[in-house]
Amino acid sequence: MSWDENSLPAWTNSPPTGLGAQAALPGDMGGISVRWQARQIITELLAETDPASEWTRAQLRALFEAHPDNPEHVLLEHLTATTELANAENSAIPVGVASRAVAAPEPVPFTRRSRNRIEAILSDKMLMTAFQPIRRLPEGQVIGVEALTRFVSDDGASADHWFNEAESVGLGTDLELAALHRALSAAQAVPGHMFIALNLTPATCADPRIAGLLEHSQLAMDRIVIDLNGPIPLDQYPALTAAIAPLRRRGLRIAVNGAEAGFTSMDQVLELHPDVIKLDRSFIAGIESSPGQRLRAAAMGELARYIDAALGAQGVETPEELEAVTELGMAAAQGYLLGRPSVHPLDWNAWIRSESETATSGPAS
């Protein structure tokens, strides 16, 4: 299956814009930014009616009245206050615990602190979505975006750290669902001819709540690509395939990591039958000069052709790597060379305008 209008959604026959296309951001697309997402988070929090979160709402109202034109500042001030409160609560050690902790520290306080951090993120919805462009090869047109979660926190922890920490305290699926909700909301303003790649672990993808979130997102199902993040345990294959089968019949696409597909039996690959195989940085780094890397990538290309899947490259960072993956016949690529992930519209002005115009102008005559 090729990575075009017959495999991933809404491609046009307009002339390619090229990898170097630069254009100004259209006025109606400027909302996908830190400010827009911050304002949306605040609006959702203020609309809640749970008495337990009245302190949060009162603080946000006061901060927003003081800084009505700067929702980013409001969120950061709110974050500082809640962090200080959480630290104060975590430092209050119950009577009888201190003497034991001196002799033999227990992991319970760390677990409690981790859980409090994740619950604070969930209750305050301190999540944002960055998008990274995915370009069709060899033309360079942007055909989709990958949604990447960014956390509003004061410690600079990576998204992987947050998700791993959430998983360690039993809140991994809850955090993934919150991130998915935010990404689906932000994706409303992505041009309609582009697909949206969303990262989910196999366990979360099989969660029955996923179907409801996707169905109520107002995104056409054939614009959604679920990028399965992590290996699929053998005992999860039946539940996963059963959960996504109704959505796939309506156009949902599934992407898998090539490293994991390569170490899975052919029977399991055929059972899942992914629409896209993505080769990550472990395949791409040095591919222009390493025969071994090229051989690995070529082997994955053969697997993709055998199951009629598209083959894409992630983590393309140099022109030489881009040339190599193009020569190998990969259908699409993303990476720092082709566009960095960002929540800020100024970082999108190299591609949003041209792709929006392509979608509205129709096929070339």
From TrEMBL:
<feature type="domain" description="EAL">
    <location>
        <begin position="111"/>
        <end position="355"/>
    </location>
</feature>
<dbReference type="InterPro" id="IPR050706">
    <property type="entry name" value="Cyclic-di-GMP_PDE-like"/>
</dbReference>
<dbReference type="InterPro" id="IPR001633">
    <property type="entry name" value="EAL_dom"/>
</dbReference>
<dbReference type="GO" id="GO:0071111">
    <property type="term" value="F:cyclic-guanylate-specific phosphodiesterase activity"/>
</dbReference>
<dbReference type="Pfam" id="PF00563">
    <property type="entry name" value="EAL"/>
</dbReference>
<protein>
    <recommendedName>
        <fullName>EAL domain-containing protein</fullName>
    </recommendedName>
</protein>
<dbReference type="InterPro" id="IPR035919">
    <property type="entry name" value="EAL_sf"/>
</dbReference>
